[in-house]
Amino acid sequence: MEKPPYAMIAILFVGAFVSLLNETLLNVALPSIMKDFDVSASAVQWLSTGYMLVNGILIPASAFFIQKFTNRNLFITAMILFTAGSVLATLSPTFSVLLAARMIQASGSAIMMPLLMNVMLASFPIERRGAAMGIFGLVMITAPAIGPTLSGWLIEHYSWRTLFDVVIPIATITLIFAFFKLKNITPQRNIKLDVFSLILSSIGFGGILYGFSSAGEKGWDSTHVYGTIAAGVISLVLFVLRQMKLEEPLLQFRIYKYPMFALSSAISVVLAMAMFSAMLLMPIYVQTIRGISPLDSGLLMLPGAIVMGIMSPVTGILFDKFGARILAVIGLSLTILTTFMFSNLTMDTSYGYIMGIYTLRMLGMSMVMMPVMTNGLNQLPPTMNPHGTAMNNTLQQVSGAVGSAFLVTLMQNRTESEIERLTQSSAGDPAAMANIANEAMLNGINFSFTVSVFIAIVALFLAFFMKRVKPSEQAGRQQQSAG
Questions:
Q1: Rounded to whole angstroms, how far apart are CA atoms 202 and 209?
Q2: Arithmetic mean of pLDDT, 130-157
Q3: Does the pLDDT of residue 383 top 70, yes or no?
Q4: With 60 as the cut, is the pLDDT of residue 236 above it?
Q5: Cβ atoms 64, 250 nearer than 8 A
Q6: Which CATH superfamily is 254-483 part of?
Q7: DSSP code for 31
């Protein structure tokens, strides 16, 4: 086999790194944006959940794009969209324009990760893919790790718009290099896009998320809320039924006949809901309630992110030796314990305590994510791997977005009911009235973390049913059935 195109892979890595960095870059900035544009917590979280949702809608279509178009044209188009979105975001005069800019960014970034994974699979022989994917895993973890700390430092010294100013030159330089250096190495097939499937998946995922997000402002009894959730669920059911009938589906749902993949997928969905919620709730707690600076807020999350980065190759070695179940059970137990500790935050919980618990929580999660996902993918025959990775990426983005929307909505509703209760009990006392908003929001955050504990318990219960799958046995069985 020819020498892998390292220069080309490096360009794709930088593009993927910047798009991943951008996903978490804004989390620490959310309180500043809330203040600048005078919007609520449930509205501002759309900057994160909307970004994830666009990813979740477009990742299923990425399998079609990768087969239909050259990797060069796809990457250049994605980088143009991403750069244009970044420029619009830094210039945005209103919250609506900023939200639209984030959606444009996301439409570019959605194609990056599946494209990079495909190019790497095409560039490296099977015996060298493990090491290559190990580096890929580190990049996936390092970018979100740097995000909160970098954005914290920038917001401390400059405006939140600087977050986009930093990204623009890197994206532009990557685009120029891509134009001159990228070659086509992925095979093309003349396949047709099933437009109806794309419409159904967009209405399905979009309706569900929009319904959950709107509940914070409109209430769960609003026809606007349960109407959009119902439309989303019906569209998703129709989407799945249609995929089962198509010869070349947008997303291949037949992979769920492999029990370990189905189980790993369920655990990943539940875990994503719990993980993304903390990334949104923590900055609101430390900045809005405690008045901790954006830089210190970002630094608070850095040790946890570093631990996750270090553990990426370590869990790979432990997975090969012991399998996924033991790692998942230990990791999820740690996640449940630390999430429970977060459900008892007070007005004077120490900075060191919060940092320690957050780091332990990330350690727990690092022991679950990759091993569970790899164990599931190991059961799939090689031809199904692209569908497996597309399905995992889609579900992780969408469940993270729905989980965030759901838990922030719970926080918002709990905060409002607490404000009413505390206002009645402290009527006429000016000193007590001044603290009501913060006390109510603290109660709302603690309540959301309590719900997260129960979500994580579901994942722990499922983890006990995991069995070890050896890729060699599966491959052998495939060869026998083929022969």
A1: 11
A2: 69
A3: no
A4: yes
A5: yes
A6: MFS general substrate transporter like domains (1.20.1250.20)
A7: H
